[in-house]
Every structure is written in C-alpha cells, then in structure tokens.
Design a protein that fits this description.
Length: about 130
C-alpha cells in the first residue's frame, strides 16, 4: 500500500504541511510513524480526503495553458475488467478519468492512493508515475 510523508501529502492535496498536520490532529486523516519515526499517511486515506475536499473549478476561460498539460494527483478509484481499466485521479480540484489497458495499470503499479501524473492533450489522458 502506498504511503507518503506529510510534505508529500500536502503537495498532492495542494495545501500546506500545517494543514495536513491539522487534519491528522483532528482525526480527519489517519497517520502512523514509519520505521524512521516520521509521520506518514496511507495513500488510500489521502485519496478519500482528496475526494472529500475537491470542489469544482470556477467557470470561465482558462488562460496560459499549453497544448500539453500535466496534472499531478492521487489515484482515488480503479475499476478493472479482463482487458481495460478506468483510473480516476483527483488533481487538486479536478477529477480526471483515464481509460487504459489493465496491463498498463499493473505495469505502472497503480493502486488507490498512488501518486500519478495525468498528461492531457485534446481528448486523450495519459497517466504515468512521477519521476
């Protein structure tokens, strides 16, 4: 299961480290200590919080966008059949859905709580693991 430090969780949610610590302190986001004594959260728990705090983007024109956009987010849901898979990401306030082969999901080791990058161009969404 994917786990990440507080700073990584904050980056994925688009909030400050302190905000994530307050979520932990309030019991909204479960945490534990890793073997090095650092506070970590499970990716699946973070995915639930990301979905909870997501809000729709404001209506209007989008400025300063390139033809190819990359959005970092957390995997919130995966539905697989024998050949294909549907992968949902929460990228800040945006929900991104990608259809890809089941084999690609397995090769990328995607699971709920994994951090991934959606590359968007026209009608195609490509999901990969950040380097």
């Amino acid at each position: 299961m994917a786990q990440m430090r507080i700073s990584e969780a904050a980056s994925v949610l688009g909030v400050s480290d302190d905000t994530v610590r307050r979520m932990v302190d309030a019991g909204r986001l479960p945490s534990r200590r890793d073997p090095a004594g650092r506070l970590v959260v499970q990716g699946e728990d973070l995915a639930a919080v990301a979905r909870e705090i997501a809000r729709p983007a404001p209506v209007g024109a989008v400025a300063d966008e390139s033809a190819r956009n990359r959005m970092r987010g957390i995997v919130t849901r995966i539905v697989k059949d024998t050949v294909m898979a549907q992968v949902e990401l929460q990228c800040g306030p945006f929900r991104v859905v990608s259809l890809m082969s089941r084999e690609a999901v397995e090769d990328l080791r995607l699971e709920v709580g994994s951090v991934a990058v959606a590359s968007i161009k026209s009608t195609n969404v490509v999901v990969g693991v950040p380097s």
